[in-house]
Amino acid sequence: MAAVELQHWWYGGMRAINAALLERFLPPPHNLQILDAGCGTGGDALFLRRYGRVVGLDLAAEALALARQRLPGCLVRGSVVQLPFADQSFDLVTSFDVLYHRAVIDEQHALREMWRVLRPNGRILIRLPAYEWLRSSHDRQVHTRHRYTAGEVQRLLETNGFVIEHLTYALTILFPLSAAVRLLERILPTQQQHTDSAMVMPSKPLNTLLRLPMMVEAAYLARGGRFPFGLSIVSLARKAV
Questions:
Q1: How does pLDDT run along the chain (241 residues), one tens digit per residue?
Q2: DSSP 112-173
Q3: SS3 state of residue 97
Q4: How many CB atoms lie within 10 A of CB 192?
Q5: SS3 46
Q6: Are 154 and 100 in contact (CB under 8 A)?
Q7: Which residue in 23, 27, 108, 113 has the fewest CB atoms around it within 10 Å?
Q8: How far apart are CA 148 and CA 132, in angstroms?
Q9: By C-alpha distance, which of 65, 114, 110, 61 is closest to 87?
Q10: Which of 144, 155, 143, 157 is CA-nearest to residue 114?
């Protein structure tokens, strides 16, 4: 992840989608206090600095050691289910592909913690993988506990004190290809023995080509669009007060 996340088409495309929602609902000037809850090796926290001061939190010491090379002095080790911050400390909390993880036994507890550390009318931006039937070898590699539907994400956010401002599927244009590959794994079980990371850096032309559909999706979302299906679910929500 650390080796590829600043150049890989998937990471770059997802950051474009994140920016589309943030810039639509959080117009400049930006001087926000931001928590990236589950920051991993720091690529998204680095991107979020354009919106204000970022604190990255992660449970994995190995990830934080790599993140410190990019974000010295801005990182905390801790769990999303017990955030080590005072009430109403942040304007924005982000959580990108974290709450699905098997280490997060209760995502509702994590959401309540995020609500607690947000200031009145603060916002949360979360991303989660879509559809249990799309489970693959990659899910085993990244320790997926659950894949979601948009309806589940909506209920989780609303139940835990958030007002949804935008909720959509993403990675829709590439969905047929990816779904076919994942379903093929079930037909050819030997494919499931593959242990290399799914986030291998492709050739430069292919990397550029694969990123283009995600840029199209980001432009559509920036205009208020929503997708009815996709590989991921993205939602921006506001703390209800």
A1: 888 898 999 999 999 999 999 999 998 878 999 999 999 999 999 999 999 999 999 999 999 999 999 898 899 999 999 999 999 999 999 999 999 888 888 899 999 999 999 999 999 999 999 998 888 777 677 677 788 999 999 999 999 999 999 999 999 999 998 888 888 877 776 544 444 556 788 999 999 999 999 999 999 999 999 999 999 999 999 998 8
A2: HHHHHHEEEEEEEEEEEEB-GGG--HHHHHTTB---B-HHHHHHHHHHTTEEEEEEEEE--T
A3: coil
A4: 12
A5: helix
A6: no
A7: 27
A8: 7
A9: 114
A10: 157
Residue found under tokens 């590829």: 4
Tokens of 143: 């320790």
Written as six digits, the tokens of 216 are 């199209």
Whether the Cβ atoms of residue 126 and residue 235 lie closer than 8 Å to each other: yes
